[in-house]
Amino acid sequence: MATIERLTVTMPAEMAATLKRAVDSGEYASASEVIREALRDWSFKRQLRLEELAALKQDIDKGLDDVAAGRVREFDVERIADRGRKLLAARSS
pTM to 2 decimals? Predict the structure, then answer.
């Protein structure tokens, strides 16, 4: 079984009231249960953000590699806008 550690948490009154309402309504058995679920959600979202950041860094590195290798085109606003219009039209139909 995991070791249990007691912590003291300070929060704004409105957050404490929300937590107490969740317990008082019977949705949760205790304030600790609410906090544990909140931490699990936070950990999950944090992991997703880290994975998205890693993917973004890979995309940036690929783009920089393409530039270094000369795999680039001239920036053309009309070409990009036309491509966007085509993608939007395809999605609409």
Answer: 0.67
- Domain count across the chain: 1
The string of pLDDT tens digits covering residues 48-85 is 999 999 999 999 999 999 999 999 988 899 999 999 99
Distances (CA, A) of 78 to 8, 75, 88: 58, 9, 15
Q: Is residue 49 part of a domain?
A: yes
- Residue 31 near residue 20 (C-beta atoms within 8 A): yes
Domain that holds residue 77: 14-92
Count how many Cα atoms sit within 13 Å of the Cα of residue 92 in the half-sphere of its side chain: 6
